[in-house]
């Protein structure tokens, strides 16, 4: 089963890290079976969380992970038009990299 390495749950919210939260949300929405392995960034291949282990592959960075999940399992964006895909990418860039 796919393993998701991320920060331990705290204060009853899914995750303090929005990158971890995003990755786990994608897994849940796409109906992919996974187990969580709480860990710290020091153990991660790129020094940052989340990362996954699937079929012997280790992959870091939530963007690359979602791309991998879309290709291998279930692409939740498959019904979107080009304009909707462009808008979603713009929103993603804004929220992930420029809002905090
Ligand atoms: N581009 C990465 C960013 C991941 C990231 O910044 N993770 C933070 C937690 S929110 C982290 O592990 N930081 C540890 C550090 O910077 O030393 C992704 O999308 O996964």
What do you see in this structure?
40% of the residues lie in helices and 18% in strands. By secondary structure, the chain is α+β, with helices and mostly antiparallel strands. The radius of gyration is 14 Å and the shape is globular. The chain starts with a strand and ends with a helix. The model has no long low-confidence stretch (mean pLDDT 95). Glutathione (GSH) binds next to α2.
Number of E-state strands: 4
Residue windows where pLDDT falls under 50 for at least 5 positions:
none
**Beginning-to-end CA distance, first to last residue:** 34 Å
Question: How is the biggest beta sheet arranged?
Answer: 4 strands, mixed
Proportion of helical residues = 40-55%
**Tally of domains:** 1
Would you give the CATH topology?
Answer: Glutaredoxin
Query: How much is the average pLDDT?
Result: 95
Q: What order do the SSEs take from the amino end to the carboxyl end, as H and E?
A: EHEEEHH
Radius of gyration, taken over Cα atoms and rounded to an integer in Å: 14 Å
| Ligand list | glutathione
